[in-house]
Design brief:
Length: about 150
């Protein structure tokens, strides 16, 4: 596995990975209506701008993007997704290990899905609050989580 910085040419493969991962991995925790609202059509130009503004990493395996994640300068971990066919291989851990050390902040925060919550808890994140968020007119549950860093 190679971890590298995001390139604009990655955006199409990343948006496909996002859609397929949400629909394939999160289906045990969310309804079909919720999955469609969460991972419907993505504005690739908007995502590209965000990825260029944030520190964004891509994990690739044999030329295929196996995962991606991004963090901003405040320590907000915005996206972290691993391809549905590459789950359980340490990709999210490797991405997080790199993302969490990028900025000199005292805490990392994220909004974790029901599916991702156990992963983040295992990394030392704690639930700050459960919340209901609206995506395309549909309510989804997620968790504001925080990890205090020892600096």
């Amino acid at each position: 596995m190679e971890i590298r910085e995001y390139r604009e040419c990655d955006i199409q493969e990343i948006t496909e990975l996002f859609f397929n991962t949400v629909h394939g991995v999160c289906s045990k925790d969310y309804t079909q209506e919720q999955l469609n609202a969460w991972a419907g059509p993505v504005n690739a130009d908007q995502w590209n701008r965000v990825f260029l503004e944030h520190y964004t990493l891509v994990a690739s395996e044999n030329g295929t993007i196996a995962g991606f994640g991004d963090i901003d300068h405040t320590g907000y971990l915005d996206h972290l997704f691993v391809h549905k066919d590459y789950q359980g291989q340490g990709i999210a851990t490797a991405l997080c290990d790199s993302l969490e050390t990028q900025f000199l902040v005292h805490a990392i925060t994220t909004h974790a899905s029901i599916t991702a919550k156990p992963f983040f808890e295992a990394r030392g994140y704690r639930v700050v609050k459960e919340q209901q968020v609206m995506r395309n007119g549909v309510v989804l549950t997620n968790y504001v989580m925080e990890k205090l860093l020892k600096r």
